Every structure is written in structure tokens, then in C-alpha cells.
Amino acid sequence: MKIISFNMNGIRAAHRKGFYDWVDAQGIDCICVQETKAQMNDGLKACLTLDGFEGYFADAQKKGYSGVGIFTKHAPVAVKTLIGHEVMDAEGRFIECTFPKFKLVSLYLPSGTSGPERQGIKMQMLDWFFKHYLQQTISDDLPCIICGDWNIAHTKNDLKNWRQNQDHSGFLPEERAWLDQVFFDSGWLDVYRTLYPEKTEYTWWSYRGQARKNNTGWRIDYQVASPHWRDAMVSASVAKEPIFSDHAPLIATYDLGCLRVINNGD
Prior knowledge:
266 residues, Deoxyribonuclease I, Chain A, six-stranded mixed beta sheet
């Protein structure tokens, strides 16, 4: 099973740049997208269908802002677009599809770069999401993969200029400590880093300067898996070319036949 996570920075823009045609040749089962910046549930979905896939979306109330979705070749048995957090729901930051053997989430956590108020909202959201979703879901019998733009680089191996960014949103000590909780204390798996402990690849580059040309990037897009997937993770890669967005698609392959049976987090 092959899954893509991709922040589109606008689904219409990514479509114009050839993302749909590129996906066609990749043999993908599910595509988790973020920052659609579109009211997909107000009729736009019909204009942006992806051949062979069914699409499900959570839109932001504000037009042209945020929004997440999941394209899938496999029919889900349930779809959840509201998580119960006022800001996350209003901004279209979460969607969950439940399949017979696993759950798949597309997640778009906020940036705090616009100022202290937004950073405060980000930290509150992280705390809430950890307590009310991550801690509860990891103990479920049903395996789960959470794909998305988490807007945090975890370690100095996850961004080029880490020394200069220690006091910037996205690499703040409290944000990195939160990911420590997620990966080290709770047991969620950073799929890419679990497979490649020392490898350096980035998934986002600023449009400023020559960031992409110079590979001055950040790894802020993740596929995060419950412990059931530890033996089922086959490979992961970042598709840096062609360019569809300021982010690059993160592709991971899983072997469903190798899923662990875990009860109550044991």
C-alpha cells in the first residue's frame, strides 16, 4: 500500500502545475492533502476529481484558507471531518477515513509565524490534540497513520539552518519537546525517521531567495504511524521533482500483511 502526504498550497494551483497527471503514474492508494485553499464541499470537488479516486474533504469556513482532504482508491467505512476542537474544525485542519484494517488521517497543524497570538493558538492546539486524539488513538486496536504538515521540524537534522532558527516558530524548544512527547513518550512512529535515522531530506522550502535551489529546507511534513506499523513500514521518500508547491510530496509504502496486533497499547 502506497500513501502520499502533500501540502498543496492550493489544490487548484497544484492541479494547474500537473500534480494530478503526476499522481496517475505513481501507483498510489491514498493521497492525504493539506492546504487545499478551496471550498471543495460547495461544488468544487466535482471540478477537481482525480481519476480512480474518491475524494473526501474538510473545508475551512474562511474561503481560500487551509482545508484538508483524502483521495482514496478504497472505499472507507466511515469519514470524520470534525474532531471537536473549535479552531481546528473551523479552519478545516482534520479529516479521518476509517477502512476495514486501519484509519488514515490528513492533518494540517498551524504555523505560528504571524506573531505571538497565533503561536499561542498553535501551542494550545498541540496540547489539545495530544490529549484528546493522539493519546486516545494510539491505544486503539485499529492501526492508524496520520499524514500531514505538522509545521514543526523535530531535530537539527530536519532543517538546514537550525542554529539560526532556534527562536523561530517551527523549531522552538517547546514545539520540539511536544514532538518528543509524541514520538518518544507516547510511541507514535515518525515513519521517515524510523526508516532512515540519519538521512537528511526536506519537504518544505521558502519561496524567498534561492531556498529550493540551495536546498535550504525544513522537514515539517510527516507520516506518523501507530506502533502496529513498525514491521509494516517498507520505504519512504520525498518527491522533490517536479515542483507543485512550496512543499514536496512525502511518499511511504506499507505492507499490510506485516501489521502488528497490539491491544491497549501493549
